[in-house]
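in:
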């Protein structure tokens, strides 16, 4: 079980990455992630905390062209989802992203999949430009885009804090979410939750 961090405070040079909170990953969408709806209120709590501290938030999204290689019709693993310009690709309406929040689009190359928010995007230079020194990560899905983004944060020599109460797993194979958490922990990620954040 994750060990809460007592009185962890958000400090200057922290940043929050909100991963793929898009309609297609919620109930009724093309690729619903179990439990995605349940994490929205907690994620909004974090968003308010970052706004109150005037800290940057980055929102990632799958932004696939039609016929993307990850789709079942093209021999991929997933149903058609998050196609550019569709309702399913839009951010979940109850998610309270700050105005002007930078949006990181990934998976735009038709013959290449991209789970990490760093893969083929401008996220790394944006973090450097903002002087970010610690990264907090929440969203979906624990066992895919969250995991790969967390591992890439660590590869970029930044501490990664996973908000365990604001993530949800696909669990295509039972236990995938738990295994992803263990893999992130193995790479050096730190787990946290709302109770571990100082008021």
């Amino acid at each position: 079980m994750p060990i809460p961090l007592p009185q962890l405070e958000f400090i200057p040079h922290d940043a929050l990455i909100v991963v793929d909170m898009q309609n297609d990953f919620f109930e009724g969408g093309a690729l619903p992630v179990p439990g995605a709806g349940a994490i929205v209120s907690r994620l909004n709590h974090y968003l308010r905390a970052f706004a109150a501290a005037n800290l940057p938030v980055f929102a990632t999204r799958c932004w696939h062209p039609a016929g993307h290689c990850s789709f079942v019709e093209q021999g991929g693993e997933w149903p058609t989802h998050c196609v550019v310009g569709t309702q399913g690709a839009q951010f979940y309406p109850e998610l309270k992203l700050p105005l002007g929040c930078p949006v990181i689009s990934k998976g735009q190359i038709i013959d290449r999949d991209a789970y990490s928010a760093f893969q083929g995007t401008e996220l790394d230079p944006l973090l450097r430009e903002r002087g970010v020194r610690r990264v907090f990560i929440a969203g979906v899905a624990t066992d895919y885009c969250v995991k790969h983004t967390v591992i890439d944060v660590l590869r970029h020599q930044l501490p990664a804090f996973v908000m365990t109460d604001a993530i949800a797993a696909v669990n295509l194979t039972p236990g995938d979410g738990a295994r992803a958490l263990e893999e992130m922990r193995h790479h050096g990620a730190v787990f946290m939750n709302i109770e571990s954040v100082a008021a």
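note: The chain has one domain: 14-196.
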